[in-house]
Amino acid sequence: MSDFVDQVTLHVKAGDGGHGCASVHREKFKPLGGPDGGNGGRGGDVILEVATDTATLLDYHRRPHRKAGNGAPGQGSLRSGADGGDLVLSVPDGTVVRTGGGELADLVGEGTRFVLAQGGRGGLGNAALATAKRKAPGFALKGEPGETFDIVLEMKTVADVGLIGFPSAGKSSLIAAVSAARPKIADYPFTTLVPNLGVVEAGATQFVVADVPGLIPGASHGKGLGHQFLRHIERCSILVHVLDCATLEPGRDPVSDFDVLEGELAAYSATHEVDLASRPRIVVLNKIDVPEARELADLVRPIFAERGLPLYEISAATHEGLRALTFAMAEAVASDRASHPTPEPTRLVLRPRQLGSVDFEVVKLGENRFRVRGDKPRRWIRQTDFSNEEAVGFLADRLARLGVEKALLEAGAIDGAEVLIGDEEDSVVFDWDPSTPAGMGPVGGPRGTDSRLG
Q1: Cβ pair 43, 84 in contact under 8 A
Q2: Angle between the 375-383 and 389-402 helix axes, to the nearest 10 degrees?
């Protein structure tokens, strides 16, 4: 298996909240000790964090299922459960987080964090549920489940200079000659299948160069893994065309190779809404240590000069012309950095829920059949222990105070209506009885019971 993976599907599950505890204080000579059940702990979050020492998504390819810690249940004597541990997943700089609905986050900058899945809230113990009317509740609330997501992590190489060209144009030889990178070099196409990064220092400027795998005609439409290769140049501020002056393939020459590559970049920009046309270009004629290649370079030099493109003739094998090229790339990088503000780590914007928004809605599904949608009813359903009558009665009171009973009447519900509350896949079904009083608080009876449900 390759040691480089730049796209994975990750299945994450945040921790579930711990259940609250229903307990009554028992102590000698204190017959009415009162409720002392503690709250459950919060479930752990799943957090993505940019770490510069992480260069690939390979670990998530091998283990795509990740889960944060659950909150501990509450205990008697007012002891709350411990919070579940957060799960922090390190990702490379430049990782894009996507779902079926689009892009969630673009993580750039060391230490940038993104809360991917939030842990469930812990359930309240009966001590927290006690009121003047319900002095000793015989129930507690259950912890809420943590969020679950299936997301795609896509890594886009973060580099200053991107080397682009046909297969076997000498890009890997060039990055090996100007930096300490040691990519695989061989005399056959697509030797490089993953981007190689190298750090280059020229004068006072230090910059990162990316050796992008070779491109072929049709790369912008995915031919030859073109989509996987082209996305790694989206963040490069300078594009360097490495053109092979010694190729023996019929119909190829540096000018036609340049035009084909530019056409692929333009097509990719149009389909992926990326502006590559405005980025500075540098043209490099490689392999001029071959006599025929040097002659060809002399022929095409005026053509590129007419187009106003900076041109450098080099030999990655003999290192001829590399010093001038590295200083030219450094100058272009320094100029680009000066024209843009220093990039800062991604700022996560929290947008509170708008005040006055509707807490729920009642939707008619058919003849005397209704669904109650909304965040509050859905959460309350998850918190309720349906094996405890008093807990079910507490739920009915909460829904009535929220206005669900009134909304059902206005929607045309009559006695015996089938009411579904919760998500479509795990709804709880009630037979609605408007004659049963709700919303008035606790009624008399032993702990854990409710006379309305008898």
Answers
A1: yes
A2: 170
The per-residue pLDDT for range 189-208, each reduced to its tens digit, is 444 446 677 778 888 888 88
Strand partners, 428: 421
Work out whether strand 361-366 and strand 65-67 pair parallel, antiparallel, or are unpaired. unpaired
**383 in Cβ contact with 141 (< 8 Å):** yes
Nearest of 305, 259, 302, 309 to residue 281 by alpha carbon: 309
Q: How far apart are CA 152 and CA 13, in angstroms?
A: 14
Residue 224 is predicted with a pLDDT of 42
Q: Which two tokens stand for residue 272?
A: 């992926």
Q: Is the distance from CB of 128 to CB of 20 less than 8 angstroms?
A: yes
CA-to-CA distance for 276 and 296, rounded, in angstroms? 28
What are the DSSP E strand ranges found in 226-297? 238-244, 281-286
Q: In what order do the strands lie in the sheet with 87-91?
A: 87-91, 46-50, 113-117
Strand partners, 155: 95
Fold for 7-155, please state it. Answer: Spo0b-associated Gtp-binding Protein; Chain: A, (2.70.210)
Backbone Cα Rg of the chain: 32
Environment class of 285 (CB within 10 Å of its CB; exposed 0-12, middle 13-18, buried 19+): buried
* Higher pLDDT pick, 99 / 443: 99
Domain range 361-453, its CATH number among 3.10.20.30, 3.30.1050.10, 3.30.300.350, 3.60.110.10: 3.30.300.350
Place of tokens 């320094």: 334
- pLDDT at 442 exceeding the cut of 80: no
Domain with residues 161-339, CATH architecture: 3-Layer(aba) Sandwich (3.40)
